[in-house]
Automatic annotation (TrEMBL):
Keywords: Hydrolase, Metal-binding, Multifunctional enzyme, NADP, Oxidoreductase, Riboflavin biosynthesis, Zinc. It holds the Pfam family dCMP_cyt_deam_1. It comes from Spirosoma oryzae. PANTHER family: 2,5-DIAMINO-6-RIBOSYLAMINO-4(3H)-PYRIMIDINONE 5'-PHOSPHATE REDUCTASE, DIHYDROFOLATE REDUCTASE FAMILY PROTEIN (AFU_ORTHOLOGUE AFUA_8G06820). This is Riboflavin biosynthesis protein RibD.
Amino acid sequence: MVPAEVFMRRALELATLGRGQVSPNPMVGCVIVHDATQRIIGEGWHQRYGEAHAERNAVQAVQPDDLPLLPDSTAYVTLEPCSHYGKQPPCANLLVEIGIGRVVCCNDDPNPLVGGRGFAKLEQAGVRVERGILADEGRLLNARFFTFMEQQRPYIILKWAETSDGYMGAPGGQPVQISGPLSQRLVHRWRGEEDAIMVGTNTARNDNPRLNTRLWPGKHPTRIVIDRHNTLPPYLHLFDGAQQTIVISEAGLSGGLASLVEQKITSVLVEGGAALLTSFLSEGLWDELRVFRSPAMLGDGIKAPAVRGRLVSREMIGADELTIYRPN
């Protein structure tokens, strides 16, 4: 018999194909396996917000000749099947209707609209349910969704580029390009994977950034700028109408993040500057640090924030070293 983890890893792999397309929903993958032969007879993933969920796509992929096998098959799903009517009908109902024999999941759904009701509906219909297979991997995949639901705030990614001597800006706040072209393209890919991108007042005024994904094919994120005294001029690119821009004027980060929850923004990529990044770090409001270190040197200027947390990866992106950290 093939271990359950093998099929669940395939489901997790499929789920990642929805990255950047399904928010505020979670990424979900589903693999349907005929138990006796250990053959995959259907698979799918949640491809776009508002469209069919992973379970429905997997069922629709089952060939007509294999439909009689469903009562003797297992659906490996990365998250508890939904039990409520939203933009799509409940997936738990669908699995009951097709007569699936068993459902295996990574995680319970933290959404209070589901919260165990999907599993209960399956069990009441006689479907065998197993939970917690690759649970850590499932939570990591949907860290944005779990953070949003459990902590009532967006998932926060702090990103900056620094020189080898520890500076992230030139003297006087003048803009300077630190990271290389490959790193810049990677950042634009990241922008398309998150709901929103945030900068502070000084970065908006000094750099006049567009904060779009022009270097990578993908959706433009919502732009967020902190402007507590409403001093930013209207001619900035942030206000060109090319994509949505939210101006936060509340004092304190917590209040600003609460307003983003109301708008169902589940993740924010914070791109600076130093004062804004330091504020997030000081208040412990962050979930990832992504730091590029360039071989270039400035000798003077704006110091980069002190890196903290637990190192989870290190790699070279062209001439730049990219390190990623998570809280201890």
